[in-house]
Design brief:
It contains 2 helices and 4 strands, in the order αββαββ. By secondary structure, it is of the alpha+beta class. Strands 3-2-1-4 form a 4-stranded mixed β-sheet, with helices on one face. Helix 1 packs antiparallel against helix 2. 28% of the residues are buried.
């Protein structure tokens, strides 16, 4: 999978699937295991709607990229950032 294509698609998908409490989002692609991880950083504990939007985002990426064999979503509560691993694709300004 071309990383730039993944980044571009991820930015578009995430931009459609954030709420006011999302601070940042990152993707991590492991080409060896074909695993995609999507991590959202929230300023508060996410609601059901927030979690559904996160699941929708990963589903859209799975549909777009056939190279993805496994995928997962996770989240953290943070004032400004999500964990250091992965590529930053969204940050609230």
């Amino acid at each position: 999978m071309e990383i730039q294509a993944l980044l571009n698609a991820s930015k578009c998908v995430i931009a459609r699937n954030v709420t006011e409490i999302v601070q940042a989002a990152k993707v991590h692609w492991n080409p060896v295991s074909s695993h995609l991880a999507l991590v959202y950083g929230y300023k508060l504990a996410p609601s059901e709607d927030d979690l559904e939007r996160q699941e929708l985002a990963i589903t859209e990426l799975l549909a777009e990229f056939s190279d993805i064999i496994t995928a997962e979503c996770s989240w953290s509560i943070s004032d400004s950032e999500v964990p250091n691993d992965g590529m930053l694709i969204y940050r609230r300004s």
